[in-house]
Amino acid sequence: MDSTVFVGAASAGTTGLFRRKPGQPEWERIKNGLPERVRVYSIMAKQGDPQTLLVGTQFGIFRSQDGGESWRDLGVPSEDRPILSLLAHPSDPATIYAGSDHTAIFKTEDGGESWRRLATVQPAGALTSCFPVRVLKIAIDPSNPDEIYGALEVGGAIRSLDGGKTWDDITQGLLDLTKEPHLKNCILSENETEGMLDLHALTVSATQPGTVWIANRMGLFVSEDKGDTWREFKIGRFSDLTYARDLMTSPHDPKVFVAALSESSRGHAGSVYSSNDAGASWSRLDHDISIDSTVMTVSVSAHDPNRVYCAARLGQVFGTEDGGATWDAMPLPDGVEDVRAVVCS
Length: 345
Known about the structure:
This protein has a domain at 31-117. The chain has two helices and 28 strands. It has helices spanning 172-177, 194-197; strands at 5-9, 16-20, 28-30, 40-46, 49-57, 60-64, 72-73, 83-88, 96-100, 105-108, 116-117, 134-141, 144-153, 156-160, 168-169, 199-203, 212-216, 219-223, 231-232, 243-249, 257-262, 270-275, 283-284, 295-300, 308-312, 317-320, 328-329, 339-344. The chain has a four-stranded antiparallel beta sheet, with no helix packed on it. A four-stranded antiparallel beta sheet has the order 4-5-6-7, with no helix packed on it. The radius of gyration is 18 Å and the shape is globular. It starts with a strand and ends with a strand.
């Protein structure tokens, strides 16, 4: 392993933030400045400065400026909401967005010193009886950073075209797709729109302005008009595993996408797939390893396009330093489960 890897866990058992440096044989749990029994839902490294990291927790956002050695509470006014997603502006690292429960999104324009809650909207079709509608991922269109998108767990999708000042519900096209029998799905409720509204991640590539890709319980879906309409991509043409938990565009090449595809939310099989043609075709990236639970998160290093790490729900962490030619397994300590985030330097 040639990089430092951070992993966040949010289980009811052994929770917290874990770090593994190059040459380090075991994971270390980081505590200095973080609360006891902290649940880490999201991790973000500052652009151009891997020593500065932010983590989203049930207690708000904490920042380290020394590679994780110490942490400071940034005082986000989250009202006891967990911070589930973090995203920096592509050209202004001091501007950061943070997603939370009840469709809440917070924004800072000074690197985290002060925060305000944005006036988001909750989609009309959101299934609020399951649990609070969570902003699991935020994406920005690199060609127009004022265009921001939010993926809501069992809630659909929202959009801002003015840097977060106002927001639109862009869920109707997803609801329309539930007229297709194979896209009807419910587990937590009796509403068959549930599966299509169960968004986990989304991304926008600089090669496709205005085109939004989402990952949800039913697979991968695409909008070519900023979310006004949606179509099914049919990832099942390339993968037997179609439950999509994470999705990102490589920071090195906007034509390269990486996705975490699994059996189900709490299944016994997971995988990492990649596309080198902006999502037109996909192939499996991981091999010669056994991923035995849902892949929850995947990360491409901001410093090396060949460095990819993923983490599975039950504490498995895997990484490649050579673009997928070989993979290493680095399981977290016993009892660490419900892994939510991974970042590699």
